[in-house]
Amino acid sequence: MKNILSLQNKLTPDDFAPLDENYFKEESLETEEIGYWKASWIRLKSNKIAMVGLVLIVIMFIFAFVGPLLSPYSYDQQVRGDEALWPCLKHPFGTDRLGRDILVRCMIGTRISMIVGLVSAVIVMIVGSIYGAISGLIGGKVDIVMMRVVDILTGIPSLIYMILIMMFLGNTIQSILIAMCLTYWITTARMVRAQILTLREQDFALAAKVCGLSKWQILIHHLIPNSMGSIIVTVTFLIPSAIFQEAFLSFLGIGIQVPKASWGTLANDAIEYLFSYPYQMLFPALAISITIFALNFIGDGLRDALDPRLKK
Fold first, then answer.
1. How confident is the model at residue 228, as a pLDDT?
2. Residues 55-60: contacts with CB within 8 Å, 24+ apart?
3. 116 neighbors 247 (Cβ within 8 angstroms)
4. Contact, 257 vs 264, CB < 8 A?
5. Which end of the chain, N or C, is less packed with Cβ atoms under 10 Å?
6. Hey, CA dihedral for 194, 197, 200, 202, is it positive or negative?
7. What is the DSSP code (8-state) at residue 101?
8. What is residue 84's predicted lDDT score, i.e. its pLDDT?
9. Euclidean distance between CA atoms 208 and 214, whole angstroms
């Protein structure tokens, strides 16, 4: 008690005066606020393998969309006297049995594969996210019915979908995109549903509900944004699958048809001359391998960057 009274006697009004604004200036730490996406980009840049994959994809994009503009040949142009010509200065990748330049045909094939992979990925992300989010948010009987539909579609081989769609709609890029989207959205829907079921029980979702937000507001403003990392990673891994599927369909003769160039059609044309002119198979196979490896590297890097808990 005496200590308190003695302290009161020592206090003056000056002791309660505001501190000068420069008082803590020398001790302040200048730090930049780093958000989730910026931190993810920093982690992605530190992943050398992922960045190599990103550089390769950029090179393949230039190869696909800029290369044909610089080539003196078109993908269906037949050069008389250059039939089945081995690689040379005039034709760096050689020509096929009809005298068509394989380099420009590989460029066009890369363009078709990139378009199919990216467009199908965007559509799958939208459709699968909406379907899985609605199923996980509403729950109950609606969730049971929606998931049973997914189970039924999963039980039917995807190749059957694609063959039937190609028969009715023709061998076009549009029909391939429709076939891809009807097949691949199922994986995204399952993943998004699992994410929503987990996130809707988290504290931030319960707090939003207590604040008076509706289910749909919570879904749009909180649940889906918090699921975007997993959605992006899942869709990134679906792109190489879609590219390989398109090449496989074209190789079987039910995808892109000649004279249009696709990696699958190039491989199909080259298989007859595999031992006499192996270069005709080599370059399309290298293009497929490089693209798929690069996309998988990027997918692995995104998985570690967007969810650092998975990084060892």
1. 82
2. 56/290, 56/291, 56/293, 56/294, 56/297, 57/291, 57/294, 57/295, 57/298, 60/110, 60/114, 60/287, 60/290, 60/291, 60/294
3. no
4. no
5. C
6. negative
7. B
8. 82
9. 9
Res 66: pLDDT? 92
With a CB cutoff of 8 Å and minimum separation 6, the contacts of 311 are 43, 304
Residue 132: burial class (beta carbons within 10 Å; 0-12, 13-18, 19+): buried
Check if the beta carbon of residue 118 is closer than 8 Å to that of residue 177: no
- Cα angle value 148/167/253 (rounded, 5°): 110
For 73-126, how does the pLDDT look when each residue is reduced to its tens digit (9 = 90+)? Answer: 988 888 888 888 899 888 999 998 888 999 999 999 899 888 888 888 888 888
Convert the pLDDT of each residue in 19-34 to its tens digit: 666 655 555 555 566 7
What tokens appear for 107 in the block? 């460029």
Tokens describing residue 103? 């380099």
Q: What is the pLDDT of residue 59?
A: 94
Amino acid at residue number 15: D
Q: Residue holding tokens 């079921």? A: 197
Query: With a cut of 70, which residues of the chain have pLDDT below it?
Result: 1-16, 19-33, 308-312
Question: Is residue 183 within 8 Å of residue 246, measured between CB atoms?
Answer: no
| Strand, coil or helix: 33 | coil
Rounded Cα distance, 215 and 260, in Å: 48
The packing angle between helices 158-169 and 173-199, to 10°, is 140
Residue 312 pLDDT: 47
Q: Quick one: tokens of 196?
A: 């929503």
CA trace torsion 173, 176, 178, 184 (10° rounding): -130
